[in-house]
Amino acid sequence: MSVDALKNALPAYAKDTKLNLGSVTSTSQLTEQQLWGTVLACALATRSPRVIRELAEEAGDHLSAEAFEAAKAAASIMAMNNVYYRATHLIGDETYSTLPARLRMTVIGKPGVDKADFELWCLAVSAINGCGRCLESHEKVLREQGLSRELVQEALRIAAVINATAATLDAEAVLAPATV
């Protein structure tokens, strides 16, 4: 299994990350589609080729073709939106938030899967990308759609653990030649 391959690749100092990776992918209260869509979208958001390869392979075993594409779309659209909305927020001039973004975002309205699932994936990617404005927006929609805070928290935990996995393995790949 791909999650197991990543767990086995994590060094001893990342034992907590290894245990958390196993936990967030095996004890979730999210539906299978919510869980594996979140895993895939987060893997893509890390930009780590190894993590993307391993987790996309496993996610493919759990997601329909439509859900797989929608998770990829969530990662893609949030890569754009997180930069734009984080920047307009960080500038500190609220006038920017009143201007039209003029960015095409139709996939958010018609993601091809349940709207709440897509919003959950967008929230998790926004956590990795650090966009507070997007986190607030997607959390609000999820709560309005009836998702509990505990389920929202699960998506955030998945994002945190997958991000830590990618950061650790990518750092190890860079450090490996220096330690040989």
TrEMBL record:
The lineage of its organism: Bacteria, Bacillati, Actinomycetota, Actinomycetes, Streptosporangiales. Disulfide bonds join 131-134. This is Alkyl hydroperoxide reductase AhpD. Residues 100-175 form the Carboxymuconolactone decarboxylase-like domain. The keyword NADP does not apply. One of its GO terms (biological process) is response to oxidative stress. GO terms for molecular function: disulfide oxidoreductase activity; hydroperoxide reductase activity; peroxiredoxin activity. Belongs to the AhpD family. Antioxidant protein with alkyl hydroperoxidase activity. Required for the reduction of the AhpC active site cysteine residues and for the regeneration of the AhpC enzyme activity. It catalyses: N(6)-[(R)-dihydrolipoyl]-L-lysyl-[lipoyl-carrier protein] + a hydroperoxide = N(6)-[(R)-lipoyl]-L-lysyl-[lipoyl-carrier protein] + an alcohol + H2O. InterPro entries: AhpD (IPR004674), AhpD-like (IPR029032), AhpD_core (IPR004675), CMD-like (IPR003779). Gene3D superfamilies: AhpD-like (1.20.1290.10). Pfam families: CMD. The active site is at 131 (proton donor), 134 (cysteine sulfenic acid (-soh) intermediate).
